Description:
The complex is a heterodimer.
Chain A: H1 7-31, H2 36-40, H3 46-51, E1 61-68, E2 78-85, E3 98-107, E4 112-117, E5 123-125, E6 131-133, H4 136-154, E7 160-164, H5 166-175, E8 179-183, E9 187-189, E10 194-196, E11 199-203, H6 205-213, H7 222-246, H8 250-259, E12 263-264, H9 268-278, E13 286-290, E14 293-298, E15 301-306, H10 309-320
Parallel strand pairs in A: 2-7, 4-13
Antiparallel strand pairs in A: 2-3, 3-4, 5-6, 7-12, 8-11, 9-10, 14-15
Helix pairs in contact in A: 5-6, 6-7
Chain B: H1 2-21, E1 30-31, E2 34-35, E3 53-58, H2 69-88, H3 107-115, E4 129-145, E5 151-166, E6 170-185, E7 188-203
Parallel strand pairs in B: 3-4
Antiparallel strand pairs in B: 1-2, 4-5, 5-6, 6-7
Amino acid sequence: VSPGGRAPRRGWAAGVALATVALLIVVVIRAEGGTPASAASANASPAAAASGTAEPFQIYAAHGSASLVPALQGRRPLFILSLGSDARPGQEITRQRSDSIHLIGIDPATHRATILGFPRDSYVSIPGHGTNKINSAMSAGGPQLLIDTIERLTGIHVDFWMLTSFPGIVNMVNRIGGLDVVVPYPMHDSFSHANFNPGRTHLNGKRALAFARDRHDVPGGDLGRSHDQGILLLAALAKFRKGFSRDPATAFTWIQAGWNEVKTNLPVATLLELALTASQIRPADVNNLVVPASGGSVGGLSVVFLQSSANAEFADMRADGVVDHPPGG
Amino acid sequence: VLALGLIVAAVAVTAGALALTRGGGSATGANGGAPAGEAVGSAQSSFAFGAPKVVLVRISTKSQTGDVSAPAAQIAASLDALYGQGIADQARWRSGPATNVWNAFAPSIRDRARADRTAFTVGKTGASLQSLEISSSRLTIRFLLDEKGRATSAIATALVTGAGTVKGSGPVTLEASGRFFFEPVNGAWLITGYPDASVNVNSSSNTGGGAAPTSGAGASP
Lengths: 329, 221
């Protein structure tokens, strides 16, 4: 307040102004449907506003979240034939024997799947080529003849196929940073260069190939090897899911890592859709099976005969992509 | 005259108070991480992520490098609208985004996206949100290119952060983030999935006046 007798006048003016402000606030707030009390306590809790007492701010926390992965929809199961060629450098991989044969069935409705391995020496009917080892189908007629063989054998329509090679496996596994597997038994084989003790271990591309190729000291020989190849597929699924949960762009990098190493009839868009579907499938919900079979010989040729129980397994898988009741299981 | 002047000034101050009482915030936009400084009370959101960071993932070493500027612009526009109307635009805090904003989602997931709206909007916080200042925003778009260099799909990663006030709770921070799959659907780049999307509003660490923490006071949209 300045001296000189003007203070009372300014005080009056200020009083009028404040009264006007207060009046306007009341009018405005009423027009907004609020109350003077709520305006006065805009930064206090509702309880404080109601009681007219001052309370400290309340901690506020609101959270909204959602997740929707565009996985495959529908009730029809999807079947993919995963193949490994034994082509050597310089050979066309589609015209060599397929030493790794896995039919992967996916049930989009339940996000369950089955990996069904076919022993490469399975002695089966090959359309137009009599009866022979199943791995000879691809060398005789490319992936399509092998598909025809599988379809006739199982009654299952193969939707897509993917084919890779020895160096393809090595490169793919290296590009995704290796795979972690639990080695089920001692594997020390000079032919495949497998040299593993039982237990969890990390595989780079070269070691992964050795793990997948070893059959000489594996229980069941070719059947055990087929199961081990399924273990690799499951390890890849686990790793993909882990990466995808951190960053969905993992789907892109994995597709990129694999594209140059595989031949497939899968369009890119479908491949992405499959990858996204895979992200929704827990490894625990995947059966890793091998078609029941037993060793024998035909004309001095060492072969594998599929057991009759295989037919029930095919029928089971045909229904929804999943083998719910594996023979002996 | 002096009194009148003061009254006019008081009216002006009150008008400002009115804007805040109505839930009007301060700036409602950001451009390339900087607040746009839009006028208080504007009904139009000027929010934009600005130029997105674009990453090309070529499916093959032999892939050509295609031009993704058009799909990138379309994707950015969709997310500008979604986060603009869902988060930044005060005029939409209560009502939510306009109907056409949901058209950014593929028809097959549009209803689901609406049901998940609290993952893209201020949700129920909008009823008590008084102000919001967008402090940063980022948008990254990764395109998967086929062998001919055509974009086949994209993953957009969006992040918006801000600070504001909530009635009854004082200062809050907001963080909205989302990862979206985009694919061409009938000629338009639409959202076909969102592996994770969330909006979090929390009291600032310095809740005014040394407030004692009170659990369970927040609203959960």
